[in-house]
Amino acid sequence: MEAVVVIAVLVVLVVMTGISRRIGKLEAETKALRAALVRAGVDMGPAPSGPPAASPPPVGPKASDRASAGRTPTPDAEPVAMRASGESDRKSTPATPPPLPSAKQKRRSAADFEKLVGASWSVILGGIAIALGALFLVRYSIEAGLLGPGARIAAGTLFSAALFAAGEWLRRRDRELDLPVFHKADVPGILTGAGAIGAFGTLYAAHALYHFVGPGVAFLGLTVIGIASLLLSSIHGPKLAAIGLLGAYGAPSLVSSGDPNPVALALHTLVVTASVMAVSRIRDWLWLAVGGVVGGCLWAFLIAAVDDPAVPWAGAILLACLAALFAATFGWEKSERPVPLQDRPWDRPGVVSFVLIALVYAEHCLVNAGFPALPAGLAVGAIIVVAAGIWPALSVASGAASLVVLAGAAAIDLPLVHYPGLILDGEGGDAFMPADIGAYVGAIAFLAVPVAALAMGAARRAAATAPRMAGNLAVAGSVIAVFTPVIAYLRISPFETDLLFGTASIAIALLLVLLAELFTRARPGDWSAPAPAAFAVAAIALLSFGLGVSLSATWMPFGFALTAAGIAWVYRARPLAALPYLAIAASLLAALGLWASAPFPGEAIGTTPFLNRLVVIVGLPAAAVLLGGEILRRAGAARTGSIVTAIGLALLAFFVGLELRHWINGGDIIGGHFRLADMAVQTIAALGFSIGLQRVARFTRARVFDLASLVAGGFGAAMSALGLLLVFNPLLTGDSVGEGAVLNMLLPAYLVTAVLAAVVALLARPVRPRWYTLSYALLAGLLAFAYFTLMTRHAFQGERIGLFRSTSDMEFWTYSAVWLVLGAVVLAAGLGLRSLPLRVASAVVIALTVCKVFLLDMTALAGALRAFSFMGLGISLLAIGRFYQRILVRTGNAEPQ
């Protein structure tokens, strides 16, 4: 049986070779005949724009040549041609659009319906009927016991051969008679397809049902039938190609074997994929090429699950060969290669095929312990990059090469792959640590450097005339340059300070800076070119990574902040569009580093107030980020510069807050409770920020400072209203405010904050809404009222002024006197400044005093104090009334009596 199959294979190959030679000869004769007719002055007319099924073409040299050339279908009847999306700009003669059909043409006549039923549906149903009849005949023979297994197999073989022969005879007969080709219902093609299905079924039954042939012969036979169907489809059309595609790729799943052979499976996948791609190129069938990509990658993916020592190298060779096949299918003489290089829309099927290959490579790296990741990755990555560098439509696929390199860097000498249970034994760190660090570093360098160099070299060739293509290749090389050291660091010394990795990363970053400058000169003045931006981004990322792993956590934010300032400085000379965004990223890294490191221990800072290590740890990063933001803003990057400035202002506020906490708590930021003193100094800082930023915004006219003053003012108002008046109010908490009669905690907590709130309201009058200034004026009044009230209680109670302490009659009467004086002073200020809000505030204070005297003093006080309370209130009200009368007379607004 094996000998019969081998002979059949040889016969099929010889026949296919002869058919291919005849097709080429007939095509050449057709072209020569058409050229001769054109030279003779014969008008050949436009190519037919519709399928000839509706009306047969005229019989003549043209139809005869088409039939003799292997019954090539017309373009409209073919599947979609194998072109990438957007390749309409290739050199071709634009086709004249067909005229719109009229209403009469849209209506199907009875004759058209007759043609449809008689010429198309009958053929399709006939093919289905033949297949069903064969199945029913086999079933009947089994049920009736008419034929034995051997006879059934022989009958199936003969029937399939008869269908093949009938299809070929009809095809030759139609060619001799110059009959038109019915593309959707081609009788020879349907007969040949039925024969292919019968051959598949017969061989499968001989193997799976009757065990006449072994797995090897069945596997080889199914493969030969599938490939033969694919080759015959170049003559008989796409239906036979679909049958061959499914049969050839489905053959391994139909054959069961207790001892699978990965080498044979890899060879089968490679041969079938090559056949599929060849037919797809000959007939321009994109769908067939996509099917070949899916089938090839699927079997390459599944072969990794086979438990056999030959799997690693079989998979590696298969992946490299598939990558080369895909490059030849979607690139060679198919994708445009302009000289000089020009950008072209990307070829989606081609790019996706390379991405699938990269993903399958990553799967092999993680599943197969003995997989040769280095040579396989080098071969696959180099093939992808070379294809991306030759054909502009495939340049996006260079990203798949970077994925291959990174997967190899992650999987080379990975103990977790060799010993899957290692991480479960509590040795998580050893699960990723290479056994030989030196060999591992050399291996990933040998993998990453050639692929990255190929990508960057190809990008350099395209930099001047194809910026998008150069950008795609530059991104691939940059991704390799950035993430390969990161992966190596995480595998060797994760999250540790490592000067060697830091130095190497900074050196690579400097090389990328040189590449960015080189690519910038390739297109002078084009600051939006993607390739220099990609190298700049990669350089900054590597520089940040190098600083991060070289410095301790304390110094890391300073390194990121200096990076942000350096980016801004570079932007002045080389205004690449990506640089301001990199400055934002570096500033955010600095801020996140400070946030993750805080709070800082006392031994890392020192005990000296203000002049301590906080200046270096937090102050200098804030200053560097502010400098970078100002440089960007003045260089024209107003929006991004404002964002960097905002981050710098936030860091500056953080620095001031830490310094104040350090000063208040005796050098210990972490220890101790947050009390009134802390809230007071933080509120003063917030209000001071708001005042300072308002002044800066007025002089610079920069929106960022204006918004920052609003934010700082909002924080200051919230801390004043909630923190000072409610949460940390010593009247409610009972905490000590100090023993000093004047210099105690009430002075900064309430009087100073009241003055600052009043200044904010005063400065906000020309630029802020009225509600904003009135809110701050109200806040200032509440803080001032609280200060004088609490100072009065402090004078009688001492350092603790809690609400639940007893109040003497003298203290209670003094509140009335203090409030009257305060109301009078506010009224005088309101009259002097001609401020209605101040006059209203004085009226509120005096009204509050009146209510206290009439409602509280009358019942709580007795004797002379009650009398003095009413007398003082009366004298004050009379004085205020007299004062208002004099003002009315002076202004002429007094009413006549």
UniProtKB/TrEMBL annotation:
**Chain spans, region Disordered:** 44-107
**What are the record keywords, sorted?**
Membrane, Transmembrane, Transmembrane helix
Instruction: Please give the start and end residues of each transmembrane region.
Output: 6-24, 116-138, 144-166, 187-206, 212-233, 286-305, 311-330, 351-371, 377-394, 401-419, 439-459, 471-493, 499-519, 531-549, 555-571, 578-598, 610-629, 641-664, 676-693, 705-728, 740-764, 771-792, 812-833, 840-861, 867-884
UniProt-listed InterPro entries: DUF2339_TM, UCP035905_mem
UniProt KW Ribonucleoprotein keyword: no
UniProt keyword Membrane present: yes
Q: Biased composition, Pro residues: where in the chain?
A: 48-60
The record's annotation in Pfam families points to:
DUF2339
Q: What is this protein called?
A: DUF2339 domain-containing protein
Organism per entry: Oricola thermophila
